[in-house]
Write a structure and sequence with these properties.
The protein contains nine helices and four strands; from the N terminus they run H-H-E-H-E-E-H-E-H-H-H-H-H. The protein is of the alpha+beta class. The protein has a four-stranded antiparallel sheet, covered by helices on one side. Helix 5 runs parallel beside helix 7 and helix 7 packs antiparallel against helix 8. The C terminus is likely disordered.
Length: 298
């Protein structure tokens, strides 16, 4: 299971390397790379659903990118479309398409280039935010369980979850926008729950004693995972049902947040059940210091 996790993460790095040679490592959205804003005043008031189904495909076809952001201006027929940067030929073609298909007066179509709203400093802040959260979790779990091997195993699992989601972004070319930061932090906060439950059960099954026999430790880890398995699956599945509904019912910006989150929850379930216990067992048997595991006072 650890080998499968490593291969998955490595595939993400390979995808990042390949895409960085031809385009960009990740499919950065308009917030990161900028683009073109097109303001169109239509002759009728289109609903959000009509805009998504009828007008957005036209912009996507001309721009060659599915990433089209829309915004209706209140109390008007004006709609703002944000796409990747369009050259003069694409702007002219888009202008003709909108005039022909929707009967818009050419004077009511304006184009404007926009710069990125997310600076390199903000990107670095996102990385720092994830790292800081991992460090504080490491310290808290270490203090809570009185054993750094518990906290180290949990952090390894969280790093796995983050890297798997990053691999998904690289392979599936999902747009990396403002929701990327929120998605990563949400995964870090959510996926630790099942791990803590398993570790707590391991501590209870050890009964407060120091056990150094590898076979007994292996039995305790297996028994603890089995005892918490239904809880781990039920929690993750109910969350997945909710996020999946959000993905299919939401607009494009919501889908860009929900889809990586689905992958993150699945990765978190995988790492919690199949990796964390094994990592703790390996650390416990390979780096065995006679430190007592304290039971929780009730």
């Amino acid at each position: 299971f650890i080998a499968i996790a490593i291969l998955t993460i490595c595939s993400g790095f390979v995808a990042l390397a390949i895409h960085s040679k031809t385009d960009s490592a990740l499919n950065y959205s308009l917030e990161f790379v900028g683009g073109t804003t097109t303001n169109v005043s239509f002759n009728e008031d289109f609903t959000v659903e009509e805009i998504e189904k009828q007008i957005v495909p036209v912009f996507a076809k001309v721009s060659g990118s599915e990433e089209v952001q829309t915004q209706k201006v209140n109390d008007t027929n004006e709609v703002v479309f944000k796409t990747i940067l369009l050259d003069d030929e694409q702007r002219a073609e888009l202008n003709d398409q909108v005039v022909t298909k929707f009967g818009v007066d050419e004077k009511n179509i304006t184009f404007e280039s926009i710069s990125s709203t997310v600076s390199s400093e903000t990107r670095m802040d996102a990385v720092i935010a994830v790292l800081v959260s991992l460090v504080f979790m490491l310290i808290y779990i270490w203090i809570r369980f009185k054993d750094i091997r518990f906290s180290a195993s949990a952090i390894v699992a969280l790093i796995h979850d983050v890297l798997v989601v990053l691999a998904f972004y690289a392979i599936a070319r999902v747009g990396v926008g403002n929701t990327f930061i929120a998605c990563m932090l949400t995964i870090v906060g959510y996926c630790i729950n099942a791990t803590i439950v398993i570790f707590d059960r391991i501590r209870e099954n050890m009964g407060g004693s120091t056990i150094n026999d590898p076979e007994r430790l292996k039995d305790i880890v297996n028994r603890s995972i089995t005892q918490t398995l239904s809880r781990s699956f039920n929690t993750s599945i109910t969350t997945l049902i909710t996020i999946t509904v959000v993905y299919f019912m939401g607009v494009q910006s919501i889908k860009e947040f929900a889809l990586p989150l689905i992958v993150g929850i699945i990765a978190g379930l995988y790492s919690s059940v199949l990796i964390t216990g094994s990592m703790w067992y390996i650390m416990k048997t390979k780096f065995n210091k006679k430190s007592k595991v304290v039971t929780k006072k009730r």
